[in-house]
Amino acid sequence: LDSHYGTYVWPCAVVLAQYLWVHRRNLPGKRVLEVGAGVSLPGVVAAKCGAEVVLSDGEELPRCLQSCRRSCLANRLPHIPVLGLTWGRVSPELLALPPVDIILGSDVFFDPKDFEDILITIYFLLEKNPHAQFWTTYQVRSADWSIEALLCKWKLKSILIPLHSFSADKEHLASSSLPGRHTIEMMIISLAQSDGT
Fold first, then answer.
1. SUPFAM superfamilies from the entry (predicted)?
2. pLDDT, tens digit, for every residue of 175-188?
3. Nearest alpha-carbon partner for 154 in 189, 113, 103, 114
4. What is the pLDDT, as a whole number, of residue 2?
5. How far apart are alpha carbons 137 and 183 in whole angstroms?
6. Most confident listed range (20-29, 54-63, 139-148)
7. I want to staple 12 with a disulfide (CB 3.0 to 4.6 A). Which of 39, 88, 107, 178 is the partner?
8. Would you give the DSSP letter of residue 129?
9. Is the pLDDT of residue 110 over 90?
């Protein structure tokens, strides 16, 4: 694989794209930001379903940002903005983001050293957009890796979404054999309520 992870369609992207497709009737007019977008499959699907999409990947990863742009052009979506955002860093680009309803992230919980930086960024975005949600898929790579303590620390809550609830528990999902060979989970993360939930 390329050393820049964002130049490859990962199984989690296919699963998240399936979730978006199943919920496509709710997407027109929604403001969507994809973080760690890479080849941007979920963001492209959201845009094709009528959402107003902004794609982002690490500002220090020009090849990943170029991959986002290529995906947009290949799918006749040249108007989609592509921004460099680095997890855990409050940058002018992050501050200038328009309001969002949905944040997408497929397989962003890849390396435990990045988990808190990702959640810092998500927390910042959810504080700015209290009614927004972070829709994320991740591959279970180790039973020892968990974000539960970090969710509590950053006052976030999560709901696990069963794959069968959106027909993503199939061996060959959307004609792709990728998801069937991996243990993939989906969750929706939002701000915890003031009552501690």
1. S-adenosyl-L-methionine-dependent methyltransferases
2. 555 555 567 889 99
3. 189
4. 44
5. 10
6. 20-29
7. 107
8. S
9. no
Q: What is the pLDDT of residues 132-163, one digit of tens each?
A: 999 999 887 666 777 888 888 999 999 999 98
Helix or strand holding residue 124 (H, E): helix 115-128
Predicted TM-score (pTM) above 0.90: no
Nearest to 138 by CA among 148, 129, 130: 148
Q: What tokens does 173 get? A: 């999902």
Are the C-beta atoms of residues 127 and 172 closer than 8 Å to each other?
Answer: no
Tell me the CA end-to-end span of the chain in Å, nearest whole number: 40
What residues contact residue 47 under an 8 Å CB cut-off, 6+ apart?
Answer: 32, 53, 75, 77, 80
Residue 152's identity, in one-letter code, is C
**Domain covering 9-189, topology:** Rossmann fold (3.40.50)
Strand order in the sheet with 82-84: 82-84, 52-57, 31-34, 102-106, 133-139, 184-191, 156-161
Q: Where are the domains of the chain?
A: 9-189
What is the DSSP code (8-state) at residue 147? -
Average pLDDT of span 23-30:
96
Q: In this structure, what DSSP letter does residue 177 have? A: S
Residue type, 26: N
